[in-house]
Amino acid sequence: MIAPIPWRLALATALPLAAVLLLSCTGGPSVPDSAADAGRPPNLEPDYAGVVVPPNLAPLNFAVREPGSHYVVRLSGDRGEPVAVASDDGLMEFPPGPWAAMLEANRGGPIHVDVFVRGEDGAWTQYRRVTNTVAAEPIDRYLVYRLMWSRFNTCGRLRLIQRDLSSFDETLVLDNAGFGAGCINCHTFRQNDPADTLIHTRGGSGGSSTILVRNGRPARVNTVTGYGLTGYASWHPDGGMIVCAVVQVRPFVHPAGDIVMDVIDMDATLVCYRTDDDRMDVSPSLSRKDRLETYPCWSPDGKYLYFSSARKPWADASAFPPRQYAEVRYDLVRVAYDAATGTFGEPETVLASADTGISMTQPRISPDGRWLLFCGSPYGCFPVCHAAADLYLLDLASGRWKPVAANSDKADSWHSWSSNGRWVVFSSKRGNGLYARPYISYVDPSGTFHKALLLPQRDPEHYRSFVRTYNVPELIASPVPVEADRLSRLVATPMEAESRLPMTSASPEVNGGIRYGEGRTP
Amino acid sequence: MLTVAGEPTTRSLRRATAFYGFLLAAVAIFSFVHIYRYVQAPLVYHQATRLPSRVDAKAKTVADFLVYPGGAVDGLADLLSDQYHRAVPGAVILAALVVLVVAAAAVLSATLGLSRRAARLLLPAVLLMVLLNQYVDPTTFALSLAGVFLGIAAYHGLADQSPRRRGAAFVVLSALVYYLVGEYYLLFASACGLFELLRRRWVLGAVGMAAAVGLPFAGDVWLFPLARYIHAVPDSWAARFLPLYHSPWTGWQPFVAEWQAGDRPVELGLSLLAQCYVTSTGAALLITVFLLVLVVAARRSRAEPRPNASRDDRPSGNPRWARVRRIAPQAILVLVLAILPTANFSPQRRSQLRIDYCAENRLWQDVLAEAPHCFDLYDTALGATVNRALYHLGLLNEAMFRYPQQIDTLALGDYLKDGGDPQLLAQLYFQLGRFNEAERFCHESIETFGERPAVLYLAARLNIAKRRPEAAKVFLRRVRRYGRYRQDADDLLRRLDADPMLESDPRVTRLRELALKDDFAIGNQVLYADERWLRPLEANPSNREAYEYLMAFFLVSRQLDPLIARLGRAGDFGYATLPRHWEEALVLRDALAEAETPSPWRSHVTPPVAAEVQRFLVAYRAAREAYPLDAHAQARALAAQYGAGYCYYFFFGPGGLAYPQGGQ
Question: Which ipTM score applies to this complex?
Answer without folding.
Answer: 0.88
